[in-house]
Amino acid sequence: MSSRELDSYRPGGQPAQLSDVLERVLDKGIVIAGDIQINLLDIELLTIKIRLLVASADKAREMGIDWWQNDPFLSGGNGHGKLEDRLRRLEEKAGLPTTPEEE
Amino acid sequence: MAAVPVPEPADGWYLYGIVAAGAAPPDGAGVDPGHGVVALAEGPVAGLVSRVSLQEFDEAALPERLADAVWLEEKIRAHERVLDSALAAGPVVPCRFCTVYRDDHELRRFLADRGDVLASALRRLEGRVELGVKAFAAAVPKGEAAGAESGRAYLEARRREQQEREELARTRAELVRDLHRRLLAAADDGVLLDLQSRELSGRGAEMVFNGSYLVTDAARFKQALADAAPDGFDVELTGPWPPYNFVPEELGRP
Fold this sequence. Notes:
Chain A is an all-alpha fold. Chain A is 40% helix and 0% strand.
């Protein structure tokens, strides 16, 4: 059986779910000592960070671009809403660069 | 210093995976939209590579890039797309994301040193693909204890809920064992992967099974999955994947 015949497994030709791609591309496959590479000791931490980032980016997309307008905590604020504080705390916890104060 | 085919000092090579020498490189762009993928042949094998800017992929720049979810998703998707296309043409040994060489010298040396092992790994993968199987649990009914009228009714309801939870945990453990065993019987190899959280899977339902299998006879595997798929669970088949989970780690070691 050729692998081509299996293409239909991806429903409707949709790209694979990012979570499925991540768990393979970042965690698996052969590791060759290229001239430049991610420090392998950090790969697990990196994976967690990426997953967190991607998950929050997906969430933001799901919610749509005007989600804050309907949020009583955020509308009418000065850009220091509760959600932003929570995001900053999460980012600090994950050791990520924090979101700029103001867009 | 070895000869660099395209003398652009700010560029390096991004390596996607290894294919048999003579295999046509996939069409389309690589992780850098401006550069296509080429097959760098060395003995019986070839590295699938494309040019990347070292400014973008240098060790110093990478940590910051990796924290950029948009950049990262784009590059990871591109990495996967190249390997998917390669897989449609023949076996491929996939490399982990972000394997970059400053020039082709070290890459050629690796291919020359490990050519025989890589070639035998490719032969082993011939005609086989990696297929993923995930199962999600249906929603668990809400507890009734909260609505109980008397203390005794509350305690009884709590006890019932506790029993139901234990029963559910047992059922799921059995499901995982049974499903994995039956899928392994229709595959050449198989591994259980970490379960993905709801946030990661993007599903409301809880993931209870996440396995990946190296498969020769896909029709047989699909049938085994249909036969083994338990009631009350949403089962999902993904792939074909480049065999990320089925290339021996030591292939990359010198």
